[in-house]
Design goal:
With 646 residues, the protein is α+β, with helices and mostly antiparallel strands. 43% of the residues lie in helices and 18% in strands. Bound molecules: 5'-O-[(L-methionyl)-sulphamoyl]adenosine.
């Protein structure tokens, strides 16, 4: 039976378009997944979107969209991006899907039922951008989020808590007994230090907004977005559903890898294993936290226009150039930097010069000297043949161990070292000199055969990385399908071969100045756009009479009014609007008691979309005037319920 391999990316926030930073994780996982397929594993690759939470609700509102409409749009765009980057994922989970929401609600109830979650009160500082809670001492400059530097919001609400503290010792022991649970080592040390400083129970529900999974037994609360999001790794496999085939096969299978960026390490290394332990789900995964793509002048930032999008570069420079750059420039345990100069240099030096040219030269020589055909030599003629073969064997070994240890950039470096060695082999054997001597035909044939064999091996190892170029290499060398596999990594398996007589360079050399300028311009345009937006005088936003006419304003008679059962600031009124009695929730307790309200004839917006406010349905809005000191409900005492206001 095949060994199984399950790999996941974080699920992305649909707060906007994804950039090369987020794309890095996805391409990285795609490469590892393709590698495991090449090695004969039965693989499953999961990615998706983290669509709930206050941040998304706010972003959608700012764009004038309904949250669901917003996340639908971004999910569709994200799928297009993964198509552009040729990501071979098996499933794309969205946390707004039923299959996920129902299981998250059940998970919460189970933890509540067994007292791993309890009800209490939360008071603390919340960063909406990071969807993260902080204590006063963690904040920077009084009120700023220690992770992203944005202002936090003081939140005081009833909240459920997950007993992290109960599992502190268990987790430390688990990390100790599973030394490669968290990699790289430096990240593991960070996590251990954090746990040792003492785990506080985690607030795992919110009541101040609606966009999330409702707590089944207390729908005033929505499940904290990280509890919701982390669960995706098992809900997508059918955990907690009727069909748990995938869960049984992959979660409980041979290898489970979560790849995340360093910023979300804590959630995955602490909250997630504790959730699983509490649920009685085996903690089978290994966690790899990678570094970040930075710009020359610091962090990538959409709001400052310091950002690079793959869909700006791929159409012009090709899929493989993008994949290669992304994979190469972030080392195993550090950050990478995107600069136009480096991007062009990687294409010109690594891809065009070293790799593309090696293939092109080899094919041209075979065409020129042997009419497109080389045959398997009977023996070896040069001492350096063995060196080349040894280098190939050594590279396969290094590549294998690097990839198994998730060190993709190191695997690439080693592979390029083989490419350099192969180029050197041409300089050493000098085929153009051999070609001048009729008696050296066998030697010349053997050199060219060895080059094709080296390239065939390079092609196989490149398959997870350069997905188009590796195919193109095989096509131009006309390598049979059976020799494009991991099992065929053995020098000399190739028999006679007839290469294409019309080779096309895989990576044409770029005009350095021109392309650097093009990319710089692209980046500047983004910055300019942000500046222009900021500089724009805020225009007076006129509405037309037609816009106003969309409001259905009527007189409403307040027949009854009570305090909201779960919110101090809200009143719940029963209002006769002529057609029927509707319930309306308003935040006016500071100025009116329920008794003050009963009998008032007020102005009602009748066609406002109904919402639940802290669990109470509100079907409209009553209008009031206010300033900093006071608030006054508008009254129309000589009119009747249902009379129109225009
Ligand atoms: N929604 C959460 C993850 C929930 S997983 C259960 C989230 N989303 S995110 O969209 O903000 O980030 C997704 C991933 O992109 C994270 O792993 C993050 O580290 C990564 N990156 C964001 N910017 C990045 C760079 N500039 N460079 C590399 N990776 C970066 O966090």
């Amino acid at each position: 039976m095949k060994k199984t391999f399950y790999i996941t990316t974080p699920i992305y926030y649909p707060s906007g378009k994804l950039h090369i930073g987020n794309s890095y994780t996805t391409v990285f996982c795609d490469t590892l997944n393709r590698y495991k397929k090449l090695r004969g594993y039965d693989t499953y690759y999961l990615t998706g979107m983290d669509e709930h939470g206050q941040k998304i609700e706010t972003v959608a509102k700012e764009l004038g969209r309904d949250p669901q409409q917003h996340v639908d749009l971004i999910a569709a765009d994200t799928k297009k991006l993964w198509q552009l980057l040729d990501i071979e994922y098996d499933d794309f989970i969205r946390t707004t899907e039923d299959r996920h929401e129902t299981v998250v609600a059940d998970i919460f109830e189970q933890l509540l039922g067994q007292d791993d979650i309890y009800l209490g009160h939360y008071e603390g500082h919340y960063c909406i951008h990071d969807e993260s809670f902080f204590t006063e001492t963690q904040l920077e400059d009084g009120n700023l989020c220690p992770d992203c530097g944005r202002p936090t919001k003081l939140v005081k609400e009833e909240s459920y808590f997950l007993r992290l503290s109960k599992y502190e010792d268990w987790l430390l022991e688990f990390i100790e007994q599973n030394p490669d649970f968290i990699t790289p080592e430096t990240r593991k040390n960070e996590v251990v230090a954090f746990i040792k400083s003492g785990l506080q129970d985690l607030s795992v529900s919110r009541t101040s907004f609606d966009w999330g999974v409702k707590v089944k037994s207390n729908p005033n609360h929505v499940v904290y977005v990280w509890i919701d999001a982390l669960s995706n790794y098992i809900t997508a496999l059918g955990y907690g559903s009727k069909d748990t085939t995938l869960y049984d096969k992959y979660w409980k299978g041979d290898e489970v890898i979560h790849v995340v960026g360093k910023d979300i390490l804590r959630f995955h290394a602490i909250y997630w294993p504790i959730m699983l332990k509490a649920l009685g789900v085996p903690v089978t995964f290994k966690l790899y936290a990678h570094g970040w793509y930075m710009m020359k002048d610091g962090k990538m930032s959409k709001s400052k226009g310091k950002v690079v999008y793959p869909d700006d570069l791929v159409p012009k420079y090709g899929l493989d150039a993008m994949r290669y750059f992304l994979l190469k420039e972030i080392p195993y345990s550090g950050d990478g930097v995107f600069t136009p100069e480096d991007f062009v240099a990687r294409i010109n030096y690594d891809l065009a010069n070293d790799f593309g040219n090696l293939l092109n030269r080899t094919i041209n020589m075979i065409n020129k000297y042997f009419d497109s055909k080389v045959t398997k030599p009977a023996k070896s003629y040069f001492e350096v043949d063995q060196e080349l073969k040894d280098k190939i064997t050594e590279t396969i070994e290094l590549y294998r161990s690097d990839m198994d240890e998730l060190k993709v950039s190191s695997a690439i470096l080693n592979l390029w070292s083989l490419i350099s060695r192969t180029n050197k082999y041409i300089d050493e054997t000098m085929p153009w000199v051999l070609a001048k001597d009729e008696s050296k035909r066998d030697e010349l044939n053997s050199v060219l055969y060895n080059l094709v064999e080296a390239l065939r091996h390079i092609g196989v190892l490149l398959r997870p990385i350069l997905v188009d170029a590796s195919e193109e290499l095989f096509a131009q060398l006309k390598i049979p399908a059976t020799l494009r596999t991991w099992d065929a990594l053995s020098f000399g398996l190739l028999e006679d071969v007839t290469v294409t007589d019309n080779p096309v360079p895989l990576f044409p050399r770029l005009d350095k100045k021109q392309e650097e300028a093009f990319i710089k311009d692209l980046l500047n345009q983004k910055k300019q756009k942000v500046k222009q937006e900021e500089a724009k005088p805020k225009e007076e936003a006129f509405i037309t009479i037609d816009d106003f006419a969309k409001l259905e304003l009527v007189v409403g008679l307040i027949k009854d009014c009570k305090a909201h059962p779960n919110a101090d600031k809200l009143l719940v009124s029963q209002v006769d609007t002529g057609d029927r009695v509707r319930q309306i929730v308003s935040g006016i307790t500071k100025y009116y008691t329920p008794d003050d309200m009963i009998g008032k004839k007020v102005v009602i917006v009748k066609n406002l979309k109904p919402v639940k406010l802290r669990g109470e349905l509100s079907e409209g809005m009553l209008l009031a005037g206010s300033n900093k000191k006071t608030l006054e409900v508008i009254e129309l005492n000589d009119l009747n319920p249902g009379d129109k206001i225009s």
